[in-house]
């Protein structure tokens, strides 16, 4: 393709043209606070390691610092304060186009004299100090730099141990063999709706994230045995934090590429006020990729989104934040009125689809004296998903085949109190109240009766209540305990769960750490499942309205070893026992909600299903050092489920093994020009499929599956290699970045599954995404 020849030529011209450019400088600013109380820390030392001459400063009365005229580049930063553990940030990037502004917190030492010194680093600990196991911090730079991540946290997470993408066409992820629906999204300490475009009903992922990396700062990702503050999730948690805009200087970012246009602006409300705004808008039409010859089908696809964060201090001890996001996405496909052009059955269908999601929150933070910090948030959120599917008959008349309209909205009030009881102990407790509103309709065509049948039709409201309390206790410099309880109640049918949580970290020596975690977790079913309608003897009823919560025991044992200041080895083994899982009743039924990626089951279910996931994970990671980073993660696992037939079967997501290598290197020219090469390679066991009974399918005119062999077929092994090339130029007042992402660079045909094609009467294979080039240009100023 011409695009591949064009990109190296651009780099060559820009490189030669900039040989005599001077090295620009930038300001490094930030704020240092106590980890628990968020109180500002005056007098903390901030040093740029390896700088010559040594650059550094101390924080002022408000805990703020600024180091000016720092040459652009990548640095390690050391933050120290008497009575607190040192913090090392190994890869702080300074560009000329935007100031680097950091929000950091330090952990208090529990004794003045320690047997050994443990230095906290940016990524070997989570931001949330209550997380003991199965958690890691990810940075905005990772979402931007990882090959094929396209600024999407979901796609970026497939580099981590135990995380598998279930479909190249979206960012659904299976964590440790669990359904993608077990994932919880959280922002600024409060639960949010699925923040993705092209969301299918009942799913936790979508085509691409609504949230731009412009808005995010370092955040946590947890894959098991969650701390007590997280509820209504079985597989994982994205705990996202928002970046505050620059409160001293107006800055702008513009990005254009084949995925769309992205515009961001930030700055102070006024020169005399420390408040700030940060706004990002994005618009895209994927038809540009189709015009380049990338096979995306016959759909006309568009999306746009807006996200923002306004930070407003209201005094020395309090502040208000107003934040939110909104996304619109749609797809349309029009069938050609020519039966000779129909090679496959789907070509005779007209379809429309839209998915709209939004959230608006206001957060009040207040320091109660020297030892407590209260955060109260009110969030209004909702999503609307609709679709229609019509089939052209032999006279090209449109016949309805499916109609869906799902509207959900929620008002959430949360209040969380952090209290430092002593240098050794802190307590976090809170409550989440949710008012739910729903309007859900689904109907589909039945071949037997040859008419449309209503499957779901419900509107109304309900509530959920969640409460938690958790204690962080450092009994010594070696041993830390996290203990807590979480309570969840769904008032629609009064289902409830009281869940104990326990975490333990033991620092064996300066380099080694052991960890253990246990938790009982529960989750409400996808909402539409409760409102399935069944017609029995001429009477309509809702057999699933009283379904109980799905539940799971998590056990995790981990070992963490520092091989050098920049290299870490981590091993975790885990076991999950799932119970009260909705399944179809009957000794011959094989359906379990465990295997559902999206959509709502409209047939009667009972809470008698079981599941189990167990395995071992390994992570070898070098944090960015000398402009080189890598992450090697692997897992061996088994994922099984059981229905009332009392047979253990493979789940849809049981690939058994996964190996991922992600890495990159940057090469500097005269400090102000950087060429980057990044790679991501995945080799994984194929996910599971159910064989199709061809003879029965021919008789019925649609796919009929061999239920006794449910998920017995394993798809061929999955392999995908992604590449990213970038070229960054730091001008005196701007930073410009050209990037080319090549997704599935080897153009491997990875199998998605099999399907029955009625027109030809054959079983055919569906493949995942081919090679896709994504070129972009970004300027910060």
The radius of gyration is 27 Å
- Determine the mean pLDDT: 89
CATH topology of the largest domain: Maltoporin, Chain A
- Which residues sit in consecutive blocks of at least 5 with pLDDT less than 50? 1-20, 113-120
Number of domains: 2
Termini separation: 32 Å
CATH C-level category of the largest domain: Mainly Beta
Measured by DSSP, the beta-strand proportion falls in over 45%
Principal-axes geometry comes out as globular
Number of strands: 46
Q: What structural class do helix, strand and pairing data support?
A: mainly beta
Helix percent band: under 10%
Largest sheet: 22 strands, antiparallel, barrel
| Assigned CATH superfamily of the largest domain | TonB-dependent receptor, beta-barrel domain
Query: Number of helical segments?
Result: 5
- In the CATH hierarchy, the architecture of the largest domain is Beta Barrel
Describe the structure concisely.
The protein has 781 residues and is mainly β.
Describe this structure in words.
- The chain has two domains: 2-129, Sandwich (Immunoglobulin-like), CATH 2.60.40.1120; 143-235 and 252-780, Maltoporin, Chain A.
- Helices cover 5% and strands 57% of the residues.
- It contains five helices and 46 strands.
- Mean pLDDT is 89; it is low at 1-20 and 113-120.
Keywords summarizing the entry:
781 residues; mainly beta; Immunoglobulin-like; Maltoporin, Chain A; 2 domains; 22-stranded antiparallel β-barrel; transmembrane; membrane; receptor; cell outer membrane; transport
């Amino acid at each position: 393709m011409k695009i591949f020849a064009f990109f190296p030529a651009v780099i060559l011209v820009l490189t030669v043209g900039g040989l005599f450019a001077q090295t620009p400088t930038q300001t490094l600013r930030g704020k240092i606070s106590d980890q628990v109380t968020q109180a500002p820390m005056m007098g903390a030392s901030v040093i740029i390691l390896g700088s010559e001459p040594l650059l550094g400063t101390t924080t002022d009365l408000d805990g703020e610092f600024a180091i000016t005229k720092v040459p652009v580049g990548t640095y390690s930063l050391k933050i120290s304060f008497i009575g607190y553990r040192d913090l090392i940030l190994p890869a702080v990037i300074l560009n000329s186009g935007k100031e680097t502004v950091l929000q950091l917190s330090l952990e208090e030492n529990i004794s003045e004299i320690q047997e050994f010194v443990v230095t906290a680093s940016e990524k070997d600990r989570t931001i949330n100090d209550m997380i003991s196991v199965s958690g890691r911090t990810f940075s905005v730079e990772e979402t931007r730099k990882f090959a094929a991540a396209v600024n999407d946290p979901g796609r970026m997470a497939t580099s981590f141990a135990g995380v598998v993408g279930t479909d190249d066409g979206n960012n659904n992820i299976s964590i440790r063999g669990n359904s993608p629906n077990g994932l919880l999204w959280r922002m600024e300490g409060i639960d949010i709706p699925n923040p993705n475009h092209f969301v299918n009903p009942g799913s936790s992922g979508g085509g691409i994230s609504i949230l731009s990396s412009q808005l995010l700062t370092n955040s946590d990702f947890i894959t098991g045995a969650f701390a007590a503050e997280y509820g209504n999730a079985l597989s994982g948690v994205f705990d996202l934090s928002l970046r505050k805009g620059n409160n001293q200087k107006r800055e702008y970012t513009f990005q254009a590429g084949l995925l769309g246009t992205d515009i961001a602006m930030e700055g102070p409300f006024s020169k005399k006020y420390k408040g700030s705004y940060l706004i990002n808008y994005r618009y895209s039409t994927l038809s540009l990729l189709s015009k380049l010859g990338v096979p995306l089908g016959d759909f006309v696809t568009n999306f746009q989104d807006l996200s923002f964060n306004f930070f407003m201090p209201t005094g020395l001890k309090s502040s208000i934040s107003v934040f939110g996001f909104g996304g619109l996405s749609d797809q349309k496909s029009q069938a050609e009125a020519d039966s000779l052009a129909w090679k496959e059955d789907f070509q005779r269908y007209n379809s429309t689809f839209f998915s709209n999601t939004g959230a608006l929150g206001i957060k009040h933070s207040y320091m109660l004296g020297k030892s407590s910090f209260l955060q109260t948030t009110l969030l209004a959120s909702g999503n609307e998903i609709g679709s229609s599917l019509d089939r052209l008959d032999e006279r090209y008349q449109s016949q309805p085949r499916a109609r869906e309209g799902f509207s959900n909205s929620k008002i959430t009030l949360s209040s969380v109190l952090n209290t430092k009881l002593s240098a050794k102990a802190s307590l976090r407790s809170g409550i989440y109240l949710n008012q739910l509103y729903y309007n859900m309709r689904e109907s589909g065509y039945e071949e037997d009766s040859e008419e449309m049948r209503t499957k779901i039709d419900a509107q109304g409201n309900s509530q959920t209540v969640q409460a938690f309390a958790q204690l962080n206790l450092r009994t010594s410099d070696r041993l830390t305990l996290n203990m807590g309880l979480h309570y969840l109640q769904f008032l629609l049918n009064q289902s409830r769960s009281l869940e104990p949580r326990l975490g333990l970290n033991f620092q064996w020596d300066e380099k080694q750490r052991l960890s253990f975690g246990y938790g009982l977790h529960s989750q409400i079913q996808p909402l539409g499942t409760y409102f399935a309608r069944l017609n029995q003897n001429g009477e309509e009823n809702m057999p699933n309205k009283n379904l109980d919560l799905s539940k799971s025991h998590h056990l995790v044992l981990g070992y963490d070893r520092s091989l050098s200041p920049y290299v870490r080895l981590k091993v975790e083994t885990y076991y999950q026992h799932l119970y009260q899982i909705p399944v179809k009743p009957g000794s011959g039924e094989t359906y379990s909600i465990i295997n559902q990626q999206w959509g709502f089951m409209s047939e009667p279910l009972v809470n008698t299903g079981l599941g189990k996931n167990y395995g071992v994970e390994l992570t070898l990671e070098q944090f960015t050092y000398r402009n080189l980073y890598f992450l090697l993660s692997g897992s061996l696992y088994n994922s099984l489920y059981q229905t009332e037939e009392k047979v253990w079967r493979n789940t849809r997501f049981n690939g058994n093994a996964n190996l991922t290598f992600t890495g990159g290197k940057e090469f500097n020219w005269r400090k102000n020009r950087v060429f980057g090469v990044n790679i991501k390679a995945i080799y994984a066991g194929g996910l599971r499929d159910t064989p199709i009974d061809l003879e029965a399918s021919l008789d019925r005119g649609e796919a009929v599956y061999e239920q006794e062999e449910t998920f017995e077929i394993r798809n061929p092994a999955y392999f995908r290699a992604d590449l990213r090339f970038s070229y960054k130029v730091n001008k005196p007042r701007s930073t410009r970045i050209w990037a080319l992402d090549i997704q599935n660079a080897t153009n491997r045909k990875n199998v998605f599954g099999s399907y029955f094609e009625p027109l030809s009467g054959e079983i055919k294979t569906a493949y995942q995404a081919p090679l896709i080039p994504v070129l972009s240009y970004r300027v910060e100023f």
